[in-house]
Amino acid sequence: MIWTGTVIFARFCSYRSIVWICVKLTIATRKFATAHAFDYLCRKRFAMSETERIQLFEHKKIRTAWDEEKQEWFFSIVDVCGVLAESKDYDTARKYWAKLKERLIAEGNELVTNCLQLKMVSPKDGKRYNTDVADMQGMFRIIQSIPSKKAEPIKVWMAAVAAERINQAIDPERSIDQAIADYRRLGYSEAWITRRIKTIEIRKGLTDEWKRGGVTKEIDFALLTDLMSKTWSGMTTREYKSFKGLTKENLRDNMTNMELLLNSLAEEAATQLSKERNPEGLSENAGVAKEGCIGGGAGAKRSPPDTSHPSQ
Question: Does residue 223 sit in helix, strand or coil?
Fold first, then answer.
């Protein structure tokens, strides 16, 4: 389109002008392609390596992403700013960061000028948007620009988060202990926590079986999960979340003890059947998953899902 316009425009220009325009267009095109190629490579690396997790600092949620390649956490800057500025909501925190970012850029702060962005789930609508993030050292430099009594406590917390990840890699049981502590802080009962931890273990066993059967794509894992959910509850994951009035929240964290039990019965039965049948590919795994749901009794015990929250 651009080159066609240039040819038409060339009829009214001198030869020297035409050469000058062509050179400028070539340079601009190369810059555009290089920038987008770099952006694509960055997104591809993080898409393959990041593990998103919501961490709690004094009951405040902070979105984080673990970079397996760099072996470090990246923190949502707007979330940290919201905690330090004691913002009343997400929009207020976002405006605070926007003004601070503008000031830091004007001061020539290279960290902010070259700020990294990752797609994260928005606390407002549950959709994924590009979000400014920084590693621990970067966050420390940004925190220095924010007058807050929570500046030092949150630095200590970040250092603890980083150390905990290393410890969990050495001892996986620490990860389970952390999950239990988080659920207790959120007010869940001990009986529910025990059941929830068990479902995590069962779910991992099932996904490991699916991987062994050749299922590797995220969309295929989602399809199999929806199939099982539809079989035992009568609803897909999206429908289930809508029924419970959820947007960004984790569905299983909002299931009752009975719902967790029925779900784990289905997944455990599907796992055992998969080990016996050794399915290959999405189609065979789907057949085994559905049969496992019914054979495990979850489908036969289908009952209307509960809209109440387990911590109530």
Answer: helix
At 14 the three-state DSSP class reads coil
Output the six-digit token pair for 233: 């509850």
- For residues 9 and 25, what is the distance between their CA atoms, to the nearest angstrom? 13
Q: How far apart are alpha carbons 7 and 11 in whole angstroms? A: 7
Which residues, in sequence order, are bridge partners of residue 64?
A: 53, 75
pLDDT tens sequence across 42-53: 443 443 334 677
Q: Indicate the residue type of 90.
A: Y
Q: Is the pTM of this model over 0.85?
A: no
Residues whose CB is less than 8 angstroms from the CB of residue 40 and which lie 6 or more positions away in sequence, other chains included? none
- Parallel, antiparallel or unpaired: strands 116-121 and 128-135: antiparallel
Judged against a pLDDT cut of 60, whether residue 28 lies above it is answered with: no
**Domain-wise residue ranges, the chain:** 2-48, 49-170, 175-295
Helices (H) and strands (E) in the chain, counts: 13, 5
